[in-house]
TrEMBL record:
Keywords attached to this entry: 4Fe-4S, Iron, Iron-sulfur, Metal-binding, Molybdenum, Nitrate assimilation, Oxidoreductase
Segments forming a coiled coil: none
GO cellular component: membrane; oxidoreductase complex
The protein, known as: Nitrate reductase large subunit protein
Organism the protein comes from: Salipiger bermudensis (strain DSM 26914 / JCM 13377 / KCTC 12554 / HTCC2601) (Pelagibaca bermudensis)
GO biological process, one term: cellular respiration
Protein family (similarity comment): Belongs to the prokaryotic molybdopterin-containing oxidoreductase family. NasA/NapA/NarB subfamily.
CDD domains assigned to the protein according to its UniProt record, in alphabetical order: MopB_CT_Nitrate-R-NapA-like, MopB_Nitrate-R-NapA-like
């Protein structure tokens, strides 16, 4: 859709499930300006740090620009014919169950629709699963058990109309920043109370009234305790309970659980229960701390039980709110991306549903049973049951639990196809055939965000090389496998119409996902389609669900489930005493293939780390900036220690983002056990166990360079900077020749260099120049090297005559680690301004330095920097 006068294009951010609207302006030379869409109902013009930096990530370096077959460049016909032929032959010889697709909640709905149709209707098996299995599957299972349908009842407005918001296992401040800012704004206006339930203190706690640091995995016991307290307080909604089955059984089960397993004090529990029960308008938001658990579905139902028992569902400011992670996680659930669902909320186990879809597609076959879920799909690839696997828009060699085993399974599989936009990912490296996809801002389609709003993604840039949209690649293969008519789509609008028509059929079968009002949309109306919330049918238009007491089980009633707390699958023991929690950081997206290309996003946290409690660190002899080694039966890792009481003693936390490309020893999923929830099949990504020890490095190094650094040390982590690259290094043995080490590191066999080397003490500083410009420098020593890192990172490409001192000149103070990525403001600058200008609030910091005044993603951190500075003053 073009804005009048200006050639801005309205689209949707490709990152999180908030689904912010963006306005795109191409400069005609491959560049793109991105701003928030003031009219989009998800964000009304706001963007977070990742959304604001989108323009920095659309460059073509690293892009996969042409198909590759066995590592060599190929044309589309050759690559597609090979894929179609190998899949067809495998099916002929070994049956439809011998092939699989592993897809992604980042695919557009149209891509997903074609993939699902190809597998379930034409291959005739259901071995298509998605990374949403690692993300939303427990919420899907919980919703289906309680409501008879996988539906989020509420809308984003509820976050503004609630009087209490409870974040359970959600670091909303970093993972859904625009929603967190919407909550903080409402809080300012109406005093909304905010409670965070998370074993770890996170940025989301900075704005909260209460942080319940429960013991990992005990959420079900906590919400069982709440259900009992609701009952005891006489706070049940008896009228609403007439539309709910299973209350007594749920209460009996809850009463036999003990909320003391949460490790929270009686006073904390009582205060939380009182607040929840005493506040009419409550929204309970939950995310991966709930879903990624072997009791994830039960945690979800324990939460839903409390909302059903009080009738707090589907009315303004009320309801459980499973917040989706990926931009189209919700769309994927709607369109049947999971191995145990059909499209449009139709059930694969239901013979009538299967028959209806079969007839609608007029397809030769139809899957008649659920397929393999992600963890089992890769196990089957590893043991030869799956002989041809197509991985689309996801990087499982990094993000699946037991990632080393998954990497081996992909490597061992007879035939692996990967569709990606990035040439070198840990998964792409294992493919027999690589297919170049068009990226965000180069293609057309739709996505559904966390509150059921369907928005268009639109193209503003031409696709580079011969890249093609994912739906088109899938349709090409479908046609080449012999199903010409079924996959003869000319454009995404055609796919969308077919999907909308199928949803109408689902509507007649009594399902809620019905967008049949869009089934006759013209191509131009599809191109201009404004965001809308489903349902969109002749009888229903948007709105909330379930306040009317109408649910989607055959009897029309909801279900409360009897839930009993179960601990995580692996309990800490003598050998593996630590509980390993994992998750996200503010400025990186998953395996960093896009966000790591933005220097300002990379500057926020430039290195993988392990949060560990000060007592544990002391006991293990781990000092600040030391490296730590993790080891468990699945794998090993080396990360930087970050000693903090944000985690409980015995717990450690590591981010999920680093990969073979960015920090090979920090692929944390190598240590995550592949234990899954028995109902949802979702892996327990947040509760493995591990041993932790200090990593005894013989030397530590820091390197900066104008060109890409490719280290080989035992530990390394690299990030891009405005001036080139930076890297942290460490190894168990000293190099024999420091200068040779540095030359290999930078790929500079002949460049002139300055050196300060004391081989006996193990100290080396080496700088390479090209004329009078510094091109690379290495600083190494036997201890973690104390340097002005952020300053040094700016030096490549400049004269920097004193680079080897490692110190900035007096007139150029070191800004310190980046806090505000929009205005490039570092920690030291902020602390200095607080101290010298006597700043007293986040607003005053903004007025003085601009920090926090654009996207707001760093406001929680500014608040904690301010609090720390004030505490320091108070102590002085
Ligand atoms: N910056 C950024 N934002 C993102 C993403 C990203 O990669 N980067 N990814 C997107 C995606 S796909 C997703 S799914 C979402 C995820 O969004 P979130 O779920 O908010 O993010 P996580 O950091 O994975 O986990 C949330 C919290 O769960 C806590 N937790 C661990 N165990 C437990 C437990 O037993 N109980 C409770 N109550 N809490 C526990 C962790 O300490 C962590 O702080 O983020 C989306 N947004
Ligand atoms: N330990 C641990 N592991 C986790 C989690 C956790 O909390 N802890 N969280 C899990 C969750 S919730 C999620 S959602 C997953 C996410 O994990 P993944 O989906 O595996 O991670 P991404 O980095 O998002 O992978 C997306 C890939 O698609 C490529 N790509 C980008 N755009 C396009 C496109 O338009 N078309 C195609 N074909 N490819 C494209 C990118 O280059 C990249 O390789 O990780 C899971 N793994
Ligand atoms: S909150 Fe940030 S990452 Fe999520 S959709 Fe909005 S701009 Fe994108
Ligand atoms: Mo996710």
């Amino acid at each position: 859709m073009k804005d009048q006068g200006v050639s801005e294009i309205c689209s949707t951010c490709p990152y999180c499930g908030v689904g912010c609207g963006v306005r795109l302006l191409a400069d005609g030379q491959g560049g793109l300006t991105v701003r928030g869409d003031p009219e989009h109902p998800a964000n009304f013009g706001k963007l977070c740090s990742k959304g604001s930096a989108l323009g920095e990530t659309v460059g073509l370096e690293g892009r996969l620009l042409s198909p590759r077959v066995h590592g060599r460049e190929a044309n589309w016909d050759e690559a597609l014919d090979l894929v179609a032929q190998r899949f067809r032959e495998t099916i002929e010889q070994h049956g439809p169950e011998s092939v699989g697709f592993y897809v992604s909640g980042q695919l557009l709905t149209e891509d997903y629709y074609v993939a699902n149709k190809l597998m379930k209707g034409y291959v005739g098996a259901a071995n298509i699963d998605t990374n949403s299995r690692l993300c939303m599957a427990s919420s899907v299972a919980g919703h289906r058990r309680a409501f008879g349908t996988d539906t989020v009842p509420g809308t984003y407005e509820d976050l503004e109309e609630a009087d209490l918001i409870v974040l359970v296992g959600s670091n909303l401040a970093w993972c859904h920043p625009v929603l967190y800012q919407r909550i903080l704004a409402a809080r300012k206006a109406r005093g909304t109370k905010l409670v965070v339930i998370d074993p770890r203190r996170t940025a989301s706690c900075d704005g909260a009234d209460m942080h319940l640091a429960l013991k990992a995995g005990t959420d079900a016991a906590l919400f069982n305790g709440l259900l009992c307290a609701i009952h005891e307080a006489g706070a049940l909604d008896k009228e609403f309970l007439a539309t709910v089955q299973g209350f007594n059984e749920a209460l009996i089960a809850a009463s036999s659980d003990r909320d003391t397993v949460t490790g929270l004090s009686e006073a904390q529990l009582a205060a939380f229960y009182k607040l929840w029960i005493g506040t009419g308008k409550v929204v309970t938001v939950y995310s991966q701390g709930v879903n990624q658990s072997t009791s994830g579905s039960d945690k979800v139902n324990a939460i839903l039980n409390c909302h059903l028992a009080t009738g707090r569902i589907g009315t303004p400011g009320c309801g459980p709110f499973s917040i989706t992670g990926q931009p189209n996680a919700m769309g994927g659930r709607e369109v049947g991306g999971l191995a145990n669902m059909l499209a449009c909320h139709l059930d694969i186990e239901n013979a009538d549903h299967r028959a209806a879809v079969h007839e609608f597609w007029d397809s030769p076959r139809m899957a008649d049973a659920p397929g393999l879920k992600a963890v089992d799909l890769f196990r089957a690839a590893g043991d030869g049951r799956i002989k041809a696997l197509w991985i689309i828009h996801t990087n499982p060699a990094v993000t699946m639990p037991d990632a080393d085993a998954v990497t081996k399974a992909i490597a061992d599989c007879d035939f692996v196809v990967v569709s990606d936009i990035t040439a070198a990912t840990d998964t792409a490296r294992l493919a027999h055939v690589l297919l170049p996809a068009s990226a965000w801002a180069e293609k057309e389609g739709t996505v559904t965000n966390s509150d059921r709003t369907i928005s268009r993604q639109r193209a503003a840039l031409p696709a580079p090389g011969v890249a093609r949209p994912d739906w088109e690649i899938l349709a090409e293969v479908g046609r080449r496998m012999g199903w010409r008519e079924a996959f003869d789509y000319a454009c995404p609008a055609e796919i969308f119409r077919e999907y909308a028509a199928l949803s109408g059929l689902a509507g007649t079968l009594g399902r809620d996902f019905d967008i049949s009002a869009k089934a006759e949309l013209s191509d131009s109306a599809y191109m201009a389609m404004a965001p809308f919330r489903w349902p969109a049918s002749a009888t229903r238009n948007g709105g909330r669900f379930f306040a009317d007491g109408r649910f989607y089980h055959p009897d029309g009633k909801a279900r409360m489930l009897p839930i009993r707390y179960r601990p995580p699958a692996s309990e800490p023991c003598t050998e593996f005493p630590f509980r390993l929690n994992t998750g996200r950081i503010r400025d990186q997206w998953h395996t960093m293939t896009r966000t790591a290309r933005s220097p300002r996003l990379a500057a926020h946290l430039a290195e993988p780390f392990l949060e560990i409690h000060p007592e544990d660190a002391r006991r293990l002899g781990i000092a600040p900036a030391d490296l730590v080694r993790l080891e468990n039966p699945q794998g090993k890792a080396i990360l930087r220690a970050r000693i903090t009481d944000a985690v409980a003693p015995g717990d450690v936390f590591a981010p999920m983002h680093w990969t073979g490309e960015t920090a090979p020893s920090a692929r944390i999923d190598a240590l995550v056990a592949a234990n899954t929830d028995p109902v949802s099949g979702q892996p327990e990504s947040k509760a493995s166990t591990t041993a932790v020890a200090r990593f005894d490095a013989a030397w530590y190094g820091y390197a900066v360079s104008a060109t890409e650094i490719t280290p080989t040390a035992d530990y390394w982590a690299r990030a891009c900077t405005r001036a080139g690259w930076r890297a942290e290094l460490a190894a168990a043995a000293q190099p024999e020749d420091w200068e040779a080490e540095a030359r290999a590191l930078f790929g500079l066999p002949d460049a002139p260099c300055q050196t300060v080397i004391d081989a006996r003490r193990g100290v080396a500083r080496i700088a390479f120049h090209d004329g009078d410009r510094l091109i690379a420098a290495l600083f190494a020593g036997p201890e973690p090297v104390a340097l002005k890192r952020d300053f040094l990172a700016t030096l490549p490409g400049t004269e920097a005559p004193d680079a080897l001192t490692g110190q900035p000149p007096a007139d150029r103070p070191d800004p310190g680690p980046l806090v505000c990525s929009c205005f490039n403001v570092g920690l030291n600058t902020i602390v200095a301004a607080i101290e010298t200008q006597g700043l007293l609030s986040v607003e005053q910091i903004g007025a003085a330095l601009e920090a926090g005044t654009n996207c707001g993603s760093c406001r929680p951190e500014l608040a904690s920097i301010l609090a720390a500075a004030q505490a320091k003053v108070a102590a002085e």
